[in-house]
Amino acid sequence: MVTMVGNESTFDKLIKDLIYLEYDAIAAYESTIERLDDKTLSAQVASFRDDHLHHLSTLNEIATKAGIEAPTKGDMKQMLTTGKIALADLMGDATILKAMKTNEDDTVTAYERASQHEDARPETKAFFMKAHQDEVRHRTWFETTATAL
Q1: Over the chain, what is the mean pLDDT?
Q2: pLDDT score for 91
Q3: 3-class secondary structure for 21-63?
Q4: To pair with 46 at 20 to 30 A between CA atoms, which of 3, 22, 94, 139?
């Protein structure tokens, strides 16, 4: 999937779409944690999920301060992100991790774009840049670990 998150014309829409993206990511992480056979891998994935929970909390704070009505759950994309993991489960842990890597491609792109959004204030840009670094770290781990299995 190719995300369009980060291309929004308004800051309000950007924040809402990032919140949706985080809810979708958290659902995919939880599905992955449940499906991985190797519990060591599950523990690492759980730590990444915690990063996403922190991102969601920060985005909700940004929304509150900006007077934006924040979504309270994921959107239709959640079925795609979790469905991809369910299908990958048929092929084992390496395939699940590869599927998660493709999900991370979207979050990396979204936060990279968000950090360059013209309406983002310096403090939100700093958060977007930190979240982008987290997502790059997650994606790298998924890719290298899947290749090593």
Answers
A1: 92
A2: 81
A3: HHHHHHHHHHHHHHHCCCHHHHHHHHHHHHHHHHHHHHHHHHH
A4: 3
